[in-house]
UniProtKB/TrEMBL annotation:
InterPro entries: Glyco_trans_9, LPS_LOS_Heptosyltrfase. Keywords: Glycosyltransferase, Transferase. This is Glycosyl transferase family 9. GO terms for molecular function: ADP-heptose-lipopolysaccharide heptosyltransferase activity. GO terms for cellular component: cytosol. It holds the Pfam family Glyco_transf_9. It comes from the Bacteria.
Length: 337
């Protein structure tokens, strides 16, 4: 069968790029003739490490690939791969400029339909249309179907066999469960009150919790939790992205916000309970293979207020994320532990 080479672009955000990896893994498994060139930020390369016949090409949007001139430079770099198709899975200003260069050069293109109108109907305050939208992973898959490839998404978790990072090997040998926790997110309206976590950690003293994600401030918070609770361990600043995936694959569950942690759990086949506030799983961003039954949230007419969680979502004077009580989370955890 003749080999074909597909250029795929998705530059951010972290969770969206992780979902692309889930789709590309399925695409390659069902179309062995396909060779992939993935263009994204270098920090996300680990998401694609185990996909056969995939070459990762980093974009540096703040450096040599900044602005139209930088994107022209990137275009010249990518042409050397002698690609057959271009799949734009981002459809933002930067990817549109790059795609225009390829279109002008005569390449066959597939471009993501973000479903903007449906999403606007989902988040508007009046006459909101609260129905499940097409999942983002299916929208990604549609791009490849448009290009003529057969692709059927199984949307199932597949547990990955990965090594345990040396730093954490000794901690996994105990009688309780090992639970990943991703309590932070880019936007505050997607973050559960940090004080709630002390209650969660105390409620399950025989189980071990591993904190993922965040920068210096989040690292300090995780360190404080670790000093207060002997069953809490921070991974922040200690592991590469690849090693984080290694550890998550060896844990029993993840408890996450609507954030990249959920999508990293999907990449390695770990079941995730997720807490939702200003956003809603109906928007199509539930982790690949994760169940909507594992979403912890309280329905309210004002939800969701935004697709990405960057806007306040007051529900009778209370932020939507704060409608989720510690009792609700404890009950859901007890149901699976």
């Amino acid at each position: 069968m003749k080999k074909v080479r597909v250029l795929v672009t998705r530059f951010s955000a972290m969770g969206d790029v992780a979902m692309v990896a889930s789709v590309l893994r399925e695409l390659q498994a069902q179309n062995r003739q396909v060779e992939l060139v993935m263009v994204s930020r270098q920090h996300f390369e680990a998401f694609f490490e185990d996909i056969p016949n995939l070459t990762f090409h980093p974009i540096f949007p703040e450096e040599q690939h900044k602005g139209p001139k930088g994107l022209w430079r990137l275009f010249q770099e990518l042409k050397k791969y002698k690609i057959d198709y271009v799949a734009d899975l981002h459809n933002n200003i930067r990817s549109k400029i790059l795609t225009l260069f390829f279109k002008t050069a005569g390449y066959r293109l597939g471009i993501l339909d973000k479903g903007r109108h449906q999403k606007k109907d989902l988040i508007k305050r009046k006459n909101k249309i609260l129905v499940p939208l097409r999942p983002t992973v299916e929208r990604y898959a549609d791009v490849f179907r448009h290009l003529g490839f057969h692709l059927k998404l199984g949307n199932a978790l597949k547990k990955k066999d990965r090594p345990v990072p040396e730093t954490f090997k000794s901690l996994l040998n105990h009688s309780g469960k090992n639970i990943a926790v991703a309590p932070f997110a880019q936007h505050p309206y997607k973050v559960w009150k940090l004080s709630n976590w002390d209650i969660i950690f105390r409620a399950f003293p025989t189980h071990q919790f591993y904190i993922f994600g965040g920068g210096r401030q989040e690292q300090e918070t995780a360190t404080d939790w670790s000093s207060l609770h002997p069953n809490v361990h921070s991974t922040i600043g200690k592991l590469s992205v690849s090693a984080e995936l290694d550890l998550i694959s060896n844990l029993d569950y993840m408890l996450s916000m609507d954030s990249s942690g959920m999508h990293m759990a999907s990449l390695v086949g770990t079941r995730c309970l997720s807490i939702w506030g200003a956003t809603h799983p109906y928007a199509g961003f539930l982790g690949y293979g994760q169940s909507i039954n594992d979403c912890i949230h309280v329905e309210h007419p004002n939800r969701p207020s935004s697709i990405y969680g960057n806007k306040s979502c007051l529900c009778d004077g209370v932020e939507a994320i704060d409608l989720v009580s510690t009792e609700m989370v404890i009950e859901r955890l007890k149901g699976i532990l």
